[in-house]
Specification:
By secondary structure, the chain is mainly β. The protein has one helix and 31 strands. The chain is globular and about 50 Å long.
């Protein structure tokens, strides 16, 4: 949350297995290859992916580089980070300013994991998920859903295979809900519905629901499981949304939106998307970042705008070559085509020493303490928790 995809026009058979919160790997495509794959998004040239494969990268945190040099995917679980290595194994560790780096393997997962995601919950717990090479989804931590044994809302330390999910190649975790993007380009949801209807389907409130495919979106390549709205990005660059229209996240004004996904006509030519804490972000094919929703704490990259509806988003100043965006606590991060990272929000600028410096203006700031090409950047969903970066020299 993950959750992110560098995506423009790509065929559905392309493997996409990096986080929601930030990063799906794409093969390096030339302009000719993109043309061969299908029609380009009108007026939105696709950015050149900076990541061409699943080769190893060094894991960095807010304290700098770690000894881990074989990471291919990463997520933040609050005080700890979760990552996937080149052999399809999943690890976790808690960054610290001193002492040994002590990775711990997640026990109970099958071999050949291809995607991971996770979030820290407001109650201090976490939810983590992984996709195996056969398309199955596994979850641990606080998990919610229903299967043949009935509804469940519990904490598990050993990963549980989610009954009723198959053909997945990407997973996105939200507050009390989870989503799988299938190889067929559909979205499957499960978890607990609330007044915000994050499941994307009508369901009784506070009753855990089993996995079910959502009506509407096709050709989906990524899901941004934000709060209180969820977004699905298609390979054509269109975006679907569902949940609550608080802060005009899904429609202009105070219009109500259906419980099921609706196409958002305000967004087109989009290549990456993410959302969190009443704010959403989208990367256009030209490399600019759009921000809308709640502007508290500089989340819209400026203190001058307190609220921006989806039909009048703020364009993040100083960022014009983005390929990825990741939403976090009161702000976001954008990874540039050149491997640079910009961060915005009043309290969301890590200093490379384990601290977070204030950014009173909320504007985008380039992180200059990371040495190398950043492939993926993951901010925490709570202020002053763990940041994570995948970096190549």
């Amino acid at each position: 949350m993950a959750r992110l995809i560098t995506a423009a026009v790509v065929p559905s058979v392309v493997s996409m297995s990096l986080p929601r919160v930030l990063g799906a790997a794409l093969p390096l495509l030339t302009a000719a290859a993109l043309t061969a794959c299908g029609p380009a998004v009108t007026g939105a040239p696709a950015p050149a992916p900076i990541r061409a494969d699943h080769a190893a990268a060094t894991l960095w945190t807010q304290y700098g580089a770690t000894p881990t040099t074989s990471a291919t995917d990463v997520a933040s679980l609050g005080r700890s980070v979760l990552w996937l290595d080149t052999e399809g194994r999943v690890w976790t560790a808690e960054p610290a300013p001193a002492g040994p780096w002590q990775p711990t393997a997640v026990v109970g997962l099958p071999s050949g994991i291809v995607d991971i995601d996770g979030i820290e919950r407001s109650d201090g717990e976490f939810t983590a998920a992984a996709v195996d090479s056969g398309g199955g989804v596994w979850m641990w931590g606080r998990i919610t859903g229903a299967d043949s044994a009935g509804p469940y809302d519990t904490v598990v330390t050993t990963p549980k295979r989610i009954e009723g999910v198959s053909g997945a190649h990407k997973v996105a975790v939200g507050p009390g809900v989870a989503f799988a993007v299938t190889a067929a380009g559909t979205v499957v949801s499960w978890g607990t519905s609330t007044d915000y209807e994050l499941l994307g389907r009508t369901a009784p409130a506070d009753v855990p629901q089993p996995p079910q495919e959502l009506a509407g979106p096709t050709g989906v390549i990524d899901v941004a499981a934000g709060f209180p709205a969820v977004y699905a990005l298609t390979r054509e660059g269109t975006v679907w949304g569902w949940g609550s229209n608080n802060y005009s996240l899904l429609a202009p004004g105070d219009a109500l939106t259906p419980d099921e996904p609706v196409l958002l006509p305000q967004l087109s030519g989009i290549v990456a998307i993410d959302a969190e804490d009443f704010t959403a972000y989208a990367v256009t094919g030209r490399g600019t970042v759009l921000a809308w929703g709640d502007g508290a704490s500089g989340a819209l990259s400026t203190r001058a705008v307190e609220r921006a509806p989806i039909d009048a988003p703020v364009t993040v100043a100083g960022v014009d070559d983005a390929v990825e965006v990741a939403a976090g606590a009161s702000g976001a991060m954008a990874v540039g085509r050149d491997g640079s990272v910009h961060v915005w929000g009043a309290y969301a600028v890590p200093d490379g020493k384990g601290g977070v410096r204030d950014n009173d203006a909320g504007t985008a700031v380039r992180l200059d303490w990371i040495s190398g090409t950043v492939l993926v950047a993951v901010p925490p969903r709570q202020v002053q928790e763990s940041y994570a970066f995948l970096v190549r020299p």
